[in-house]
């Protein structure tokens, strides 16, 4: 399976952007990347990405500011250093990387250095960020109009900015931490006396479509926060000391009371809310009786192959039931289940026809 075989939204940034991990430790490189005429800066307001939404534009466009933009010039040229500047380093900017493929990017070119930075509604109002610049929820932007590369870059930026926002103090001594390497590492300000070093956090989550091998039915669930009619795959955070497959079995049994045997990995999806990594599986049920944990789920039930197909196509023929949008890995897991089970049924039918053919000729 190639990187492009499964299109999970928020993945694919490495196909277009070199994160420069080998150069991030070089202060001279970071300074050159920050002050270069090829530097481009993506603003975020309250962790929402700033986009231009004009009547002439078919879709919202990311706002990439140049080094010469008044807001960036004021940010980088300000000699005053606040405590937040010290925490974030590089005047609050985080390095996303260097563009290697600009095919799916607007207003940037190959060789540009991409940065993201947090700003305020006041700065957005004081400086011209574009004709109709406004913050937009990252999930809304990525799951609606963004290209794969734009969604992935936005996810990287949002997750990294939120990590830095939430981690301001050393977990060993309690003093403030300082961002290094373009935001990809935190170090205690009391170093070398304190050896605390911290790295961007990723929380692994297993998400799985559970299949009854006897009927090809799929176990799906609802939470109270879901929109009316939407059902999704079961999911849960991994715990220390367990494999992903063990987490699949534990979560399904805890939330729905169903036991699971074989688990097959499908794909993964970065999920920057705040900074998770979804690990997608198709799991085979060994029992089918459901006992819902009301603290986790509103409901859970088995759906036939035809029902899942109808939900995926959003036909409305199944009492208005539907799946998550196509950008969610849950949707892709359900679509994979339908395609695989349908192919298996067709193969079985062909085999039966071939076995019956000699008898009909007697």
From TrEMBL:
Enzyme class: hydrolase
PROSITE patterns named among the record's database cross-references: NUDIX, NUDIX_BOX
Keywords, in A-Z order: Hydrolase, Magnesium, Metal-binding, NAD
Protein's GO biological process: NAD+ catabolic process; NADP+ catabolic process
MF terms (GO), sorted A to Z: metal ion binding; NADH pyrophosphatase activity
Cofactor(s) needed by this chain: Mg(2+); Zn(2+)
Region spans: Disordered: 338-362
Name under which the protein is recorded: NAD(+) diphosphatase
Biased segments, Low complexity type: 344-362
EC number assigned by the record: 3.6.1.22
Keyword Transport recorded: no
TM region positions: none
Catalysed conversion reaction: a 5'-end NAD(+)-phospho-ribonucleoside in mRNA + H2O = a 5'-end phospho-adenosine-phospho-ribonucleoside in mRNA + beta-nicotinamide D-ribonucleotide + 2 H(+)
Residues in Nudix hydrolase domain copies: 200-325
Superkingdom: Eukaryota
